[in-house]
Specification:
Elements lengths: L2 H15 L3 H14 L2 H21 L3 H15 L11 H16 L18 E4 L14 E4 L6 E6 L6 E9 L2 E8 L2
Antiparallel strand pairs: 1-2, 3-4, 4-5
The structure holds zinc ion.
Length: 181
């Protein structure tokens, strides 16, 4: 799973579960813009699902059902074994919302069990290198420390210390290593 997918999924999930569907839609869309392949398709399904619930809340039931139909269409090609995510579980939850809207019931969307924000630690992909010997820097951080983490690390290659900074920029995560003065 890419960091962008995890960041977007995790941020969107909190908003979705709080019933803030419009904001959740935006968070999923941030990830959708930068992710690829199955990650992009799953995020698009989440974008459409959140948008449908937002439409429903605003009394646009027809639009909501059209968006759900598109969400299910997009989910078709997603590999079921995709990176630990269970596409079937997501489909079940979206169909459940569809059924509730069709029956004129108030939707009670639940987050698919199999879709979690990802493992507790995230291995970041980036281009940062040791400022002394140019050894590529490996970064693995707890999910909740992705934004604003500062630490001092020993270079595994030359043994000198650098200051490591991690910043979030939308769905991107920026990593840099600086010399300690
Ligand atoms: Zn080094």
């Amino acid at each position: 799973m890419s960091p962008a997918f995890q960041v977007s999924c995790s941020a969107g999930r909190s908003l979705f579960e709080a019933g803030k569907f419009h904001a959740a839609h935006d968070a999923f869309e941030d990830g959708w813009r930068v992710c690829r392949g199955d990650e992009k398709r799953v995020l698009q399904v989440l974008v459409l699902w959140a948008a449908a619930l937002h439409h429903h809340e605003n009394g646009r039931g027809g639009g909501a059902r059209r968006l759900l139909a598109r969400a299910l269409e997009r989910l078709g090609p997603v590999d079921e074994t995709f990176d630990g995510l269970d596409a079937e579980s997501l489909k079940t939850c979206v169909i459940e919302t569809w059924g509730q809207l069709e029956a004129g019931e108030h939707p009670t969307p639940r987050w698919p069990d199999a879709i979690r924000p990802g493992p507790a630690r995230v291995a970041l992909e980036h281009d940062a290198r040791c400022p002394y010997c140019a050894e590529p820097v490996q970064v693995s951080l707890p999910m909740e420390e992705l934004d604003g983490a500062d630490s001092v690390e020993d270079c595994p290659s030359c043994g000198r210390q650098w200051a490591l900074k991690v910043r979030r920029d939308g769905a991107d995560v920026l990593v840099s290593a600086h010399r300690l003065e």
